[in-house]
Design goal:
six-stranded parallel sheet, 31 helices, 23 strands, DNA-binding
DNA sequence: AACTGTAAACTTTTT
DNA sequence: GTTTACAGTT
């Protein structure tokens, strides 16, 4: 990246040199924020600050990894040794603290982290315990109310005290019950990681002192997306020395819906009276037209501090705005453009297609696949949401936490063991009566307390498998030397019966599932390798590794799946694109109802967040920006007319006019056109290998990568001339 | 208890 | 168009 070699601006320099006291860097998109943060850390290290005194918090693992790498390379040049600084996401930092001190707040350090599906299951149980039904009380809605509370540092008791109306009183009741289920299962949810850490720091002066003393320099990236609980955590650690440096941009705040509190960044000066504020408005990433487009758009937000965004780079190409007939045409046009740019030397890895909702990826993938253009969908979490993976992980989870009833329920009868609803109800009653976990209760199930002989045998078998696994993996010596994490994972998949279960049928689906299970084993191998290189000298028992592995799995994010080295176009949501940059960016689906999303249209605050989301998307582009929409779009099986996004009007500053034939970008070095393009003109009849004979509707001539629109029997197609291998049938004039 | 087929709900974004 | 939930059947 050239940002590394370029001399720093005065403002950047000032931020890098800042040492003591609170610092807020208001960093516009592409203003060299990462450079500033990494150089500042390097600077601190070089001036004698010990690596372990540094705490840098980010939002994704990928951002953490990049930051660590860049700091390392900066100090490599100065011949310094590998630092032991803490660079991690908020959530994994908190998880690690709770692994050390969790027993002081949640009574355990061997907790399991529940994902959304686990949370839903726990809420359903809570509703049942409260005698409420889940059709009146949607688990999803209840969960978001609880999540909101936790993000504001409101625990169940406080929530109950503050509840005045029927609705919040009911939520309070469910919240309490939900939390007690989590505690009973030795489990925490995502928000608990933060909430319980904040509690720990508040209640335990001893722990607070240790952390305060250790982390002399605290840094937080993407500060506009922190919530109140995160603010409290950082604040407590930094309260003594006040060496807190936060970096962010209010215009890029896109997580308010998840509890992010923009007043953290807006009120920074209020929170830290003597704080320094350094704005970085100069953009080093994008060419003039792109910066201008972004600035035009964001100016339509009223709730903002006006901040100048400018660039001294060349004007560059104007963004292209194209309307297509439907989403298939849209996808094909995007692929065409990718092919064209690839032809003139833009590598695929420097291209991205962004969209508002994940469901848009399907059509795009199809077109990319058909055209043979390599692509990756940034969906790191998708793999771990698969049924078979969740099942395998539940087996592993139950191995390290026998109280994890949610995991137990997911696998007790998968593969089917003849343990149905009746037996489970009976078991649950027994567990409740004795305050045991479900796995513990199995041992005490018998004919006398109402179980059938068959279910008693199946359950005993199940318990025996676990006993064996525990003996084999918990007696430390036996496994440290010989078995690896991957061996353990493989063994659990085999002996649980999952492998056999999915190999019985040869349906395509089950073959897939089996492959995914194999992939999980290799994921374990990868993790083990990574763990060893990152934790040199730490003796890792398989059990310890398993903890770390499961934690890692629980905290993966979509953007973690992006490998900058792969030579493929990246497809992802606008949210996942935060913090990234590409030469060529497409934003697809610029339609009212999609971007801005229909659920935000009637609320000014939400509308402004949609606008910021679009702004984030635009500012990911360095040189080329393509904005597309479809006049008709099929959603939920029905094709509907669409309306162009109001954002298009806002960013161009002109009423939106559909462009029919536009040369989106000038190509710098003109080459003589190839022989095909000389003969093929509008009206020509041509033959295509797959689509048959068609009539040329439109030709966009470019020195390389001319595109043609051809009407075939099967419909209109956009093709790149060189790739299509068209055969001329007749030329009409 | 396990399997099969049909109805209904679903999609905003994610650590 | 896809996934989940539940009712009905064996």
């Amino acid at each position: 990246m050239d940002s590394k070699s370029r001399a720093l601006t005065e403002a950047q320099q000032q931020a890098v040199q800042h040492r003591e006291g609170p610092l807020l860097v208001l960093a516009g998109p592409g203003s060299g924020k990462t450079t500033v943060v990494t150089q500042r850390i390097a600077q601190l290290l070089l001036s004698g600050v010990q690596p372990w005194q540094i705490l840098a918090l980010t939002f994704t693992n990928k951002a953490a990894k990049e930051m660590r790498g860049r700091v390392q390379s900066l100090i490599d040049e100065s011949g310094m040794r590998a630092p032991g600084m803490t660079v991690s996401t908020f959530h994994s930092f908190c998880a690690r603290l709770l692994r050390d001190w969790g027993d002081r707040v949640i009574g355990t350090t061997t907790f399991t982290i529940y994902d959304t599906a686990d949370q839903k299951s726990a809420v359903k149980q809570a509703l049942k315990a409260c005698g409420m039904n889940d059709s009146n009380w949607k688990p999803g809605a209840v969960l978001s109310a609880i999540s909101n509370a936790k993000n504001k540092l409101i625990d169940a008791d406080t929530f109950q005290q503050e509840a005045s109306d029927f609705y919040s009183k009911s939520i309070a009741k469910i919240y309490k019950s939900y939390d007690s289920i989590l505690r009973g299962n030795d489990a925490v949810d995502f928000d608990d990681l933060l909430l319980q850490t904040a509690k720990l720091l508040d209640q335990d002066g001893d722990v607070r002192k240790q952390l305060e003393d250790r982390f002399q320099y605290v840094m937080i990236d993407e500060y506009q997306d922190t919530n109140y609980t995160q603010f409290v955590i950082a604040n407590k650690i930094a309260s003594n020395h006040r060496n807190i440096c936060v970096v962010g941009d209010p215009d890029q705040s896109i997580y308010a819906w998840r509890g992010a509190d923009i007043s953290n960044i807006l009120d920074f000066e209020k929170h830290y009276g003597e704080g320094t504020v350094i704005p970085l408005g100069r953009n080093f990433r994008s060419t003039g037209h792109i910066v201008k487009t972004a600035a035009n758009l964001i100016e339509h937000n009223t709730q903002r501090k006006d901040k100048k965004l400018y660039t001294e780079l060349e004007e560059g190409h104007e963004p292209s705005i194209i309307s297509l007939d439907d989403e298939h045409e849209e996808a094909e046009s995007i692929v065409c453009e990718a092919l064209r740019l690839h032809n003139i030397g833009v590598p695929y890895k420097e291209m991205a297609v962004l969209y508002r909702v994940n469901s848009l990826s399907r059509v795009l993938e199809e077109s990319f696949r058909n055209a043979g253009v390599p692509y990756v969908v940034a969906r790191g979490t998708a793999f771990y949401e698969r049924k078979e993976i969740k099942q395998a992980l539940s087996y592993l989870r139950l191995l390290i936490n026998a109280k994890d009833d949610v995991a137990f329920l997911r696998i007790i009868n998968t593969p089917t063991r003849g343990i149905g609803a009746t037996s489970l109800n009976r078991l649950a009653a027994l567990a409740y009566e004795r305050s045991w976990s479900l796995l513990e209760s199995i041992t005490f199930a018998s004919k006398e307390n109402g179980f059938t002989a068959r279910s008693v045998t199946s359950m005993k078998n199940f318990a025996d498998i676990y006993r064996q696994w525990q003996v084999d993996s918990c007696s430390d010596e036996s496994l440290t030397a010989t078995a690896s994490l991957a061996d353990l994972v493989e063994r659990v998949i085999r002996e649980s019966g999952l492998e056999e279960f999915y190999s019985k049928s040869s349906s395509e689906e089950d073959v897939d599932r089996l492959q995914n299970l194999e992939e999980l084993v290799s994921a374990a191998t990868d993790f083990e390798d990574r763990f060893e290189t990152e934790n040199e000298g730490v003796v890792a028992t398989p059990l310890r590794l398993l903890f770390a592995f499961l934690e890692n799995v629980a905290l993966v994010s979509d953007s973690d799946a992006i490998d900058p080295e792969n030579g493929a176009v990246t497809l992802m949501t606008l949210h996942a694109s935060k913090g990234l940059e590409f030469d060529f960016v497409t934003i697809a689906g610029l339609e009212d109802g999609l971007l801005p999303h229909e659920r935000a249209v009637y609320d000014d605050t939400q509308m402004e967040e949609e606008r910021r989301l679009c702004y984030v998307g635009i500012t990911r582009a360095r040189t080329n920006l393509l904005l597309t929409n479809a006049r008709r779009r099929t959603q939920r099986g029905m094709s509907k007319r669409t309306i162009a996004s109001r954002f298009i009007r806002e960013m161009t500053g002109e009423p939106y006019i559909e462009q029919i034939t536009v040369d989106p970008w000038d190509v710098p070095d003109p080459d003589p056109a190839d022989s095909f393009s000389k003969e093929i003109t509008v009206g020509s009849l041509v033959r295509h290998k797959r689509f048959g004979v068609g009539k040329v509707q439109r030709v966009i001539r470019r020195p390389r990568g001319s595109t043609v629109t051809i009407k075939f029997k099967s419909g209109e197609k956009h093709l790149v001339l060189e790739y299509a291998k068209l055969e001329l049938v007749t030329t009409q004039f």
